Amino acid sequence: MGAHSTPAIDLVEIRKAYGRTPVLSGVSLPVESGEFIAVLGPSGCGKTTLLRIIAGLTPLDAGAVFFHGERVDRLPAHHRRVGFVFQSYALFPHMTVVENVSFGVRHRQNGRSPVGAMLELVGLTTEAHKFPHQLSGGQQQRVALARALAIQPAVLLLDEPFSNLDLKLRQAMRLEVRRVHDQLGMTTVLVTHDQTEALTMADRVVLMTNGVIMQTGTPVDVYQRPANRFVADFVGDANFLSGIVETPIAVDRARIVLDGAAAALEARGAAPVAAGERVTVMVRPEHVSLDRSEPGGINGSVVRQVFMGAVVRCWVEIGEGVRVIVDAPGGGQPQWPTGAPVQIKVDPERLWYLRQ
Amino acid sequence: MMATRTVGVLRGTFVAIVLLFILAPLIVVVGVSFNRSPFVFFPPRALSLHWYGEVLRSSAWTGPLATSAVVAAIVAGFAGLLGTVSGLALARWPVRGRQMIELALLAPIFIPGILTGMALLFWLGRLQLVGGLAGLVLGHLVITVPYVVRTVYGGMPGNLMDLEAAAATLGAGPVRTFVRVSVPLVLPAVSAGTFFAFLLSFDNVTISLFLAGPRAVTLPVQIFNYVQFSNDPSVAAISTVLMLATVVALLGAERFISVRQLVSRRTLGGRA
After folding, report:
1. Which of B166, B184, B185 is nearest residue A84 as measured by Cβ atoms?
2. What is the pLDDT of residues B62-120, one digit of tens each?
3. How far apart are CA B215 and CA A215, in angstroms?
4. pTM for the whole thing?
5. Which superfamily does B66-269 belong to?
6. What ipTM is given for this predicted complex?
7. Is A136 helix (H, G, I), strand (E, B) or coil?
8. Which of chain A's residues have a Cβ under 8 Å away from the Cβ of B173?
9. Where do the structural domains in chain B lie, given as residue ranges?
10. Are B170 and A147 an interchain contact pair (Cβ–Cβ within 8 Å)?
């Protein structure tokens, strides 16, 4: 993030409540020009309200919204120049594709209308004179995108845009929207509850719950270095193991003895911890491996395994009621009979402690 | 093969019986209207258009016919307006409390007309509005507005709020959004509701009985009064004229609105 550039969108201490129920409790977020941000969170966390506040579709109770340094939170939606793609697409059913896309285009740029270019961009030139109900879900989605982009918006806002599509189409549309973003360099905010979507599409992921931001960071940050248990749990699959700090090594490193383990392991973390402190250690299933007899691991037994294609997911019991999920490579790897004694080994670079 | 045919024949017969059941009384009325004699015979013994000439010349019938048409037209206009505004407001109402408002708006549909009529007589009587056009119009509005609300609210796109929001983000102010998006999308339901309000008002007896008076008698009330003391085919003749007018109106309206919208639509309560 350039320290000197003005953010394309700057949200400052946004607060909003419906009646007595707070929906947003002081959300601040600067978005750099050209950046692709994904706001990720469970339903009801306030992410859609936040998006609607940026667009001017929902009034805020307190705080401020700036577009390129200019305060816009008092500006009505139709003066904000935001491209908004709705979850329901909200295509005008009584207008054709080309009428939908040109609805917001009032002034031709250099004598040329951007409508044709937008239809070309989303590959719908041949469908221009069809009505929305004659199009497939994916095509409707593209029309919604083209319509939002045709007004040459200051920012593009996407509200759960892929949730009505089937998996294959969703994956294709994610790549396509990202391609369009890269081509136009459009500042984009995507709201989603789908962590894969957030991780694959965004430059930065913002995790929200109960109206507050839990963490903001790159996809790698939030996946490998979650700020707290909520983030670790919401983004991807994770094992959480209890342990006690043996010796702190650095502000972000410590040797930790996991419950039931013989030896201490080195783990990284976001904050310093003290010796003797109880911590939770997170490790992703793909960073744990199974071994039959190598010393230095933690003893356990396989209680269940599921073939998942690329990996075999194993549940290994390492203590009374303590289970670790392990993603072992699939294919020709040896299978572990249920009940087989095994040792689990974790990649020490991938152990991440969280303060309790 | 045989089984399929038998089922087909049975189904056809059943449909024919139901249609006959529904249409038989109408056939009798139309048949009687072509009598020449001053007595009601069915089938008529001699065919004539005598009673048509009689009713269309008599101000006892043309007066109430005109009153009914005027009342129905005014009622349709106001009911269309009030019902549309209420339907749109309902869609904007927060989910909490919406069902209560809905129930209140639709209540007159569930209350027996005779009770509504009595209640109206009481209130409009105090306001000196019984026996004139104004009373009839107000009374008919009470029972027609709920139907328009129902038709408009049920017939508008489920994501109308999103569509209006979309228009706003595309730079359209409230007026442009209303004219280009909201109106075209609710117009079919509004026309259907307004047309229905016209028919309901034109046809109403229970409310009109209480509110009609010497200065304003609607056709259904006139028919009701007439058959209590006389029994000649003039009533059949005027009824046949009414039926014909309704059929023509329906066929004409079908070109612009879907009459199906009046009968088949999403149920009101089922919307989040």
Report:
1. B166
2. 999 999 999 999 999 999 999 998 988 888 887 788 888 888 888 888 999 999 999 99
3. 77
4. 0.79
5. MetI-like (1.10.3720.10)
6. 0.83
7. coil
8. 76, 78
9. 66-269
10. yes
